[in-house]
Structure formats: structure tokens, C-alpha cells
Amino acid sequence: MISKKKMIEKASEDTVILVLEDEQPLLDVIRIKLEKSGYEVITARSVEQALDYVKSLPHIHAMWVDHYLLGNEDALDFVKQVKKKNGKWADVPVLVVSNTVSDDKISAYLSMGVNKFYIKAQHTLDEIVGDLKKCIDDPEHCPVAQDNN
Amino acid sequence: MMTRLHNISVRSQLIFGFGLVSVIILLFGLYAYFSIKDIQKINAEIEMHVTEQATAAEISRDVHESLSAIDRFVLTGDPQYSRLATQTDLRVSANTNVLVSMMGNDLIVQQIETYVGLLSDRSGLSRQIIVAVEGGDSDGQAADLVARIRMIDDQIVPAVNRILEITYVDIEKRQRDIDFIFSSSLEFLAGIVAVVLVLLSFVMIALRRSIMRPLHELTDVADKLSHGEFDIVIPVYAKDEIGLLSQTFDVMRNKLRESYASLTKEVAYKTKQTTEALARLKDKNQKLQDTKLAMLNLLEDLNEEKNVIEGEKAKDEAILSSLGEGLVVTDMQRRVRLVNNSACTITGYRPDEVTGQLWPNIMKPTDENGIPIAEEQFLTLKVFKDNETLQTRYFYTHKGGQIIPVSVTASVMKIGDRAVGGVVVFRDIAKEYEVDKSKTEFVSLASHQLRTPLSTINWYTEMLLSGDAGQISEPQRKYLNEIYAGNHRMVDLVNALLNVSRIEMGTFMVSPQLQDISKFVNDVVSDVLVLAKKKDIQLTVNGNEKGIPMMLDGKLLRIVVENLLSNAIKYSSQGGSIEIGVVQRGKKEQGGVVRITVADSGYGIPESQQHQIFTKLFRADNVVKMDTEGTGLGLYIVKSIVDHVGGTVWFESVENEGTTFFVELPLSGMKEKKGTKSLT
User: Fold this and answer.
1) How many domains does chain A fold into?
2) What pTM was estimated for this model as a whole?
3) Between chains, do A103 and B677 touch, taking CB under 8 Å as contact?
4) pLDDT reading at A149 higher than 60
């Protein structure tokens, strides 16, 4: 495990992506994939943990968020905080990658300004990382959520 | 004379006859008048005589009285008697004067004159006596004087008697005159009566001969005429009224004969007409009888029908009241006309509390927190607008305040084409709602729980395959690919199962948005290009270049088109071809549709199994042998969705030649439907 402090130090130099995922194996594979793609990855398994990073990190370039998390809060609570009007991170691209299919939740995410909602099992890591790359390098082509479902 | 009489009119004859009788009666009247006058005169004379007699008798009596008074005076010297004598004397002389004036007869006058002289002597003597007595009658002169009076009286009485006698004789004579007048009058009257009778009988005879007989004859004639005998001889009479009458009869006879002839003709004609009319009437009557019979039969039928209907009605009522669902019938203003028992049980209201009330006011649809939903979402309102049966779920508030989840179906009640009211059927789905809720939770949990390990397998396999964990050998790559593909099928299967479970709950939502269906199908096609390429299958799209914008739920339509396309690819052999078409048929206003066709040149569906193709978990024999990947759920989902959004789906297929699937959606688009979940 890399210590928090070390993570933050590293993050100050590179392109930072915050990954929020409760399932450890998935968190690992995501992190590995992103690191292999050249990103600095900050991982968290609970909202509390994530909000802690959000407060302390100087910059975050994108967020990868799963709905169900450890603890009592889910990612909706987190996104609500992050996407607060005029907040520090309001303009950071957020991709929600979850297996949850509840429509009202999907709608809630999209209405809060999340860029895209992925059903985890139906997308490859390549696809999602590709989209993320677009959002960071070429914001013009970052998916923009359309709440048409 | 008779002949002459015949020429005189009957009227004149009658006037003459009655005139004669009248003159005779007048004459008799005159005679009677004069006779009565005579009798009156005679009577007056008789009366006078009677008076004379009475006066004479009075005189006679007074003389006698006067004498006796004098006598007594002389004897008594009482002046009472002298006064009496004087009074009596005065009366005698007055009566005498009366008598004298009455008696006109010479003979009697002579006697009366004598009589008067005597009387005046007598009163002179009386006065002398009175004087003498008053003077004391010293010389007895009074007695002497009385003797003289007595002498005079002896002469007077006979004279008076004589007068009486004469008058008696005269009276008798007068009475005889009267008798004569009476008897002669009677005779005269008898004569007249006889004459009148003779005259009358004469007139009667004459009338009989001149009037009655002809009248009788004419009566006979008239009688015969009345029986239609027009050829009788009408007797001719003189030129009086009867003659005229007989002539008139003749004229009348001729006229009658004519009119009778024409009448006979007329009657014959009329009779004929009447007979015909009667025949027609009979005919009509027959027809009416037939109609009546038919009506009776009809009535009987109607009665039976009525009984049947009443039975049906009773059955309907029984059904309504035993229905587990709440049922409310409203009029076009949505006022409650009828509620059944279940409706009351569910809502807590009694029928009399709701009947006549506005249903949406009593049962205000709300969301699960009791917040009223927008009125345009009220089913009872929408149903009248859309004019079709609609179904939804929302919440009612029980009379006691509890919020009840209900499944509501509303439809328009029509008689012929005319809407007359609405029917709302609802049931308490509290249990279902709970089940539904937990099922939703289960589905969402299952989807998460099943997919999470699948995702793990997915991504790690992906990492291995991409060489992120070091180079892998060719056999390793091959095996990993199998794992990867198998895992994908697993993901698909989980998705399909989740969709089926939602479809079977019947609650999946339809959220249409305006989009171009042609472009939409193109997009789905490009998503499967990779798949097609793998089997070297040619995909051709004949879209509508202008585009067909309509209301579509993209998610649902994607599932439909994706399924059809992936089936077409899956069940086509290497190097086959698939044609996809999107065409508009008809205009939106006239119920036009969009037809999507997916035609492959694949294995086809065996004819014997074509009817099962949309059944859940069914897979045709021919493809089961070649391919184990299919879930048997795809076409079931396709059909469920297409039905749910108001479209139709069907296919044509020949084994080993290919299959064409057709999906038609109304141009008016998909209708929005509320549900608890969407499909994936």
C-alpha cells in the first residue's frame, strides 16, 4: 500500500485520477490499468475517504466512481459534494461506472452533471479509460451526459 | 152541384161552411141578447111591483099602529103615545107619496088619490085629537075624533088590499111573459142547433167526397210510390188543391222514377265499390291478423329476450358485487353513478357517500407520500381525451386517511360510437406493491451482485489478453478468449433475465422522446458492424433519407433492433447478407406506421416451429444444434416490448433460405407509460 502522504506528493506532479470503488479486486485492476495508461491514481473505498482526498489534493483531473461504496454513504452523496455549484471540483469530469441499474439513480447522477454512466459488466476497461483520456486531454470530446433515459 | 163544388178550392169551401155557421150563431146571439133585455125590463117591473106591495103593506100596518097609539093617548093622555102616533102618521104619508110616485097605472092612481085624501083627513083628525087631549078634552071630543079615524081606516085598508091585488095580477102577467120568452128562446136555439148540425153534416159529406177520398187515393199512390211502384195510375181530379196535389204527385212520380233509376245505378255502383272495399278490408284485416300474430310471437320472443336480459343483468350485478376489484361507473362529467362492494371496501366510503360526487374529488390520485399528482395525469381525465383504455398505478387515500397503492384501469363506456361515461376499475395493490418493491430491490441487488464478479472476470481477462501482466502464449490467449466470450454471454444472460423479470411485472416504463427512427436504426446497425464483420456478413440499410421523426423510447427500440440484428447475424452462415429497411407507410393522421424490416439469408425457422418462436426460452431445433449461445429470451423480449409500446411484430421464414422480421410502430409514436423500472 502506498501511504496517503506519498500519494498526495506524487499527485502534485502528475495527472491525477480519483477512483472510488468498494470492491478491492476491481479497484486494483482499475488502478493498474490507469497507472499503465500513465495516470497518477488516488483510490478510495468510502465517501468519507474520498472527500478527505478531495479536500487535501491540489488537483484532480478526473474521477471514476462506483455507486455502492463501503460505509453508509454511496457515490450520490459524494458527487453531490463534488459537483456543488462554484465548488473547487465542479468542472472535473466524473464517470460513474456501476452495475446498479436503478433508473432514478442513473437520472440523479446525470442531472448532477456526471459525464457518463457505464454499466460495469458491459464495458471494457479500454473503453472507459479511452473516454477518460478524451475528457482529460481533449475536453471537447468528453462525453456529455444526456438524461434521455 | 158536386161538380161545381169540385171546382171551388177546398179552402173556399171551408171558409164558406164555417162562415155560414158563424152567421147563424151570430143571429142566435142577437136574438138571445134582445130576449135577455126584455126579461130584464120585465124583472124591473116585477121588482117595482114588489116594492109597491111592500110599501102598501107598511102603510096598512102603520095605519093600524097609529090608530092604536091614538087610542092609548086618548085613554092615558101619555104624550109618548101622541108622539108615536105623529111619527107613524108622518111615515104613512111619506110612504104614500112614494107609492103614488111609483104607480103609473090610471086605475090605481084613481084609487090612490082617494086613498091620499083619506090619509090627509086622517092625519088632520089625529092632530085634532092630540090638541084636544092636551087641552084636557073636556068635551069628549077626542073619542069622537077617534071614531072618525076608525071609519077612515076602514076605507083605507080595503084600498090598500086592492092595490096589492092589482100588483099581484100584474106580477103574474109579467112572469108569464118571462116564461114565454124563455120557452120561445129554447125553441129558437133548438132550431138553430138543428140547422147547424144539418149544415155541418152536409159540409162533412162534401169534404169527404171532395178531399178525403182523393187524399186516401193519393195516400195509396204515395204508399205504392214508396215501394217503388212507379207505373201506377194517378187519378186526375178537379182543379182544386187535390187536383194540384195529384198533378204534383205525377210530376214527383216521374222525378222519383228518374232519380230512382239513377239511384239504382248509383247504388249498384256504390255496392260494387263497397264490396270491393270490403274485400280489401278483409284482406287488410287478414294481414293485420297475421301481423298481430307476428307481433305476438315477437312479443313472446321479446319477453324471452327480456328474461334473458334480466337474467344477464342479475348475473352482471352479481359479478359486479362479487368482483374483487373496485369498480366505479361515472358519467361524462366523472360523477359517480355506480360503485361496487369492493370499491367501498377499498376506499372506506359507503355507496351513498360517493354516488353523484366527482370521483377525482373523492379519490384524489396521489404519489406514495400523499402528494396529489398533476390533474392531467388523472386517468379518468386522460381516458376521455385519448378515448382508449388506460392503465396506471397511483395512490388513493382511504376515508380513514391511509394511503393505498392502487392499480387503476379506466376506459370509456360507449353505446355504439357515443361515449356515455367512464369505467374505473382499481384494486388495492398494497401487497403487490410491497412484493414489487422487494422484487425491485432484489433485481437491483442481483444485478449488482451478479455483475460485480462478472466485471471482475471481464476486466482481469481483458488485462491478461492485453498483455498487461506479461506476454501470454497463443494457447493461453485462445483460452482466455473463451473465458472472455463466455463471461460476455453470462453478462448478456443476466441482462436478459433481468429484462424478462421486469417485463413479467408489466411495469417497465416507456419514456418516449422525439427522434429520427431512420437514423436511430442506422446507429444500432453500426454498433453491430463488428459482429457482422467477424462472420463476413454484408449489412445493407435502406433507410429513409429524409428521416422520420417520431416519439420513441430509444432504450426499448434499441433492445428490439439489437435483438433482431444479432439474431440475424447469429443465425446466418459465414458470408451471408442482411438487409435492413425503414419505411413509412401511410400518413400520421390516418394511422400510418413505420415498418422496420430485418431480412437475413440465414438458416430460417422450421415451419412446424414458427408458431412457438416468440415463446420464452424457446429455441428452434435447427439452431440449437449449430449454436449453443442463444438464451431463448431475445424474441420473447422483442415481442413483449413491441406489444407494450403499441406496435406489431411478425416474420416470414423459409428454412435454409432466410427469415424476415417486421416491426411496425404507429407514426403517432410510443405512448408514455409510467413504470417502476426500465429495461437494460
Assistant:
1) 1
2) 0.45
3) yes
4) no
Closest residue in B to A121 (Cα–Cα): B455
**ipTM of the complex model:** 0.83
Interface of B with A (CB under 8 A): 440, 443-444, 447-448, 451-452, 454-456, 458-460, 462-463, 466, 468, 491, 494-495, 498, 509, 511, 513, 554-555, 677-678, 680
Q: Which regions in chain B score pLDDT beneath 50?
A: 1-3
Q: Does residue A146 form part of some domain?
A: no
Three-state secondary-structure class, residue B131: helix
Calculate the CA B437 to chain-centre distance: 65
Interface touch A101/B447, C-beta < 8 Å: yes
pLDDT the model gives residue B639: 92
Bridge partners of residue B329, in order along the sequence: B338, B423
Residue A127, domain member (yes or no): yes
Most confident range, picked from A54-58, A125-129, B214-218, B343-347:
A125-129
Say yes or no to pLDDT of A148 above 60: no
Give a yes or no: residue A144 inside a domain: no
Return the residue of A nearest to B678 by Cα: A103
Average pLDDT score over residue span A74-98: 88
Residue B2, pLDDT score: 44
Residues of chain A neighbouring B498 (CB-CB closer than 8 A): 101
Q: Name the β-bridge partners of A144.
A: none
Q: What is the DSSP letter of B667?
A: T
Residue B403's Cβ-count burial label (10 Å; 0-12, 13-18, 19+) is: middle
Q: Are strands B577-585 and B538-542 parallel, antiparallel or unpaired?
A: parallel
Rounded Cα distance, B394 and B377, in Å: 10
Domain range enclosing A99? 4-139
Q: What does the pLDDT read at residue B131?
A: 79
Cα angle for residues B676, B678, B680 (degrees, 5° grid): 150
Quick check: B451 and A120 CB within 8 A?
A: yes
- State the nearest Cα–Cα gap between B369 and chain A, in angstroms: 17
How many Cβ pairs closer than 8 A exist between chain A and B? 69
CATH of the domain at A48: 3.40.50.2300
Report H helices in B227-378. 241-322, 341-347, 351-354, 359-362
Q: Which of B452, B462, B494 lies at the smallest CB-CB distance from A23?
A: B452
Residue A145 in domain: no
Compare B159 and A1 and report the one with higher pLDDT: B159
In the prediction, which pLDDT does B294 show? 87
Could you give the CA distance from residue A104 to residue B677 in angstroms, rounded to a whole number?
Answer: 9
pLDDT at B1: 42
